[in-house]
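EI: anyone free to look at a 276-residue chain?
SC: sure, send it
EI:
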Amino acid sequence: MVDYLLGQLPEKEQAELERQYFADEVLFDELLAIEDELRDSYARGELRGSERELFERRLLTAPEQKEQQEFARALCRHLTKGERGPSTLTRPLPRWKLLLHDLAAQPRILFPVLSFAILVLMVGAWWLGRRSTSRLQLPSASSQSASGKAPSTATPTTERQPEAKIMAVVLSPGLVRGNELSTPVVIPSKVTQVRLEARVDVNYPYYNAVLKTPEGKQIWSKQDLEAQAFPDGKRILLYLSKDLLPPGDYVLTILGLPSAKSPEVADEYGFRIGSR
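SC: here you go
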């Protein structure tokens, strides 16, 4: 699975693995857990050479992926280096379980962490109570209405957005229609984004991408894209919300942008999204 995440599997094996985890959410959860382990290894500096380069190309391109990696880096920074064994990429455990396991195995880290957390909660509760009391006792004159009463205000709150789960779908050039389409792609319920990886056979400085229904209705587009190098050739990476891809047939058109010329069709791709 590590080879799949790094884009090193042969096309036939990659297609078979995708077929399996599209249909099996347990297998997909295992794939996500291995991705977390891979991110931890990258944060600890254990990935070297081409493996590190492939990781950056596949798993550090989207903003959501960079946020995930920042979380992994912060987590690793708070764990002692000498007392942890090397990462095992095939261990399908969620990151929070690994953190609890590491802290439980290191009491001299666990107790200071818990003490600090309790202290933060106590200080936060005291500050919130003091702030609420001050608001009740000292209304601002400039915020009062003509009747002398201060208008009520709602305190804005910010919530951390859930971590994005991205599923990769590799597309090969060639339009096929109807029953000729390959096995439908089933998007697991936990996925929030789909990364379409369109293989391109013709080189251009930049590309445009347009996604439509077979009837010609445009769904999504993006301009000025650059192709990324992979062991089996170049691909264009497209990140779409899964909400844009309900069950049905789709046609992706990649337009090449020659220097100082009009866009021209480079490749077209047909694929089908199936129901869960």
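EI: The CA atoms of residues 39 and 69 lie 6 Å apart.
SC: 👍
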